[in-house]
Amino acid sequence: MQIFYAIFVKVRNVKTIIRLFLFFTLKTTMPDKEKIYSLDLIYNGAPAPFVIKTMEEIDKALGGIADNPHTHNYYTVIWPVNATGKHIIDFKEYDILPDQLFFVSPGQVHQIISDPNPTGFVILFTSEFLEKSSIRNDFISNLKLFQKIDETPPLPIAEVMASKLKIFADQMLAAFNSKDDLYLETIGAYLKLFLIECNGHCSLLPGSNLQNIEVSKTLVRNFKELVEKQFSTKHQVKYYAETLFVTPNYLNEVIKSSVNLPAKEFIQKRLMLEAKRMVIFTGKSGKEIGFELGFEDPSHFSKFFKANAGQSLQEFKESLTL
Known about the structure:
CATH class of the largest domain: Mainly Beta
Structural class: alpha+beta
Shape: globular
Number of helices: 14
Strand order of the largest sheet: 5-12-7-10-13
Distance between the termini: 11 Å
Order of helices and strands: HHEEEEEHEEEEEEEHHEHHHHHHHHH
CATH architecture of the largest domain: Sandwich
Radius of gyration: 20 Å
């Protein structure tokens, strides 16, 4: 809660956009002995598969209420058409500038601090909404937009692209507000067009070998999915390579070419991200966190954390309360 208090105090007249989840009557879960700020998508007191609002509406409803770092179980697209401020995603800070898009995956920790009078769109949707809209599960995973642990910088968009996207966003907003028959089907169609248009601007350079690209893309996707399932128990590249039926060297080569990190560092990055999330959202000790992340020896986890964070776990905790 206090991680960005110093920023908020320093930038005194800043209004915060996303406490918008309160505007959507989102639910905070707080299990015993756990300090989790995890949000479900609720609208008008009921679960909602899809929500879209303008930033003007959200800003007007919330005034200057400050946002806290939080995580949620649905996808978020934030389009500041004309806004400035800061967006922090998984402990990395990005500037908010006009006409760029942020894509936040379920489980990512994020916080937005925006200057007054922003304009733009916030689009929220669940995995279930994609399924009901006949959007295949692998559609999102094949996009280059939503990342789980890689850096997630905003996607800048040119004027021509912005014009196309605004048509799609306006149509989704109109359908959402109308609640006409088949309005969710209408939204699903325009959402898919919106994401395809965005993804087209993240494409690989032309002239690459398409067959090699497809093979590499499949391997990278399968590796990321496997890491997401097994990172807390499997730390060795050899395990992932054997499970994916490739050599460790080949896996390293493909992963590094895709995410600019060797496979080992990718796994370690995921472990570090989870460790930091647990420090913020749970009351567990370093020993307990290390054990849950597959470190049987607490001293090994302490060394691992310090080597990757540049500070001890205790120092990291203390930095959150400044």
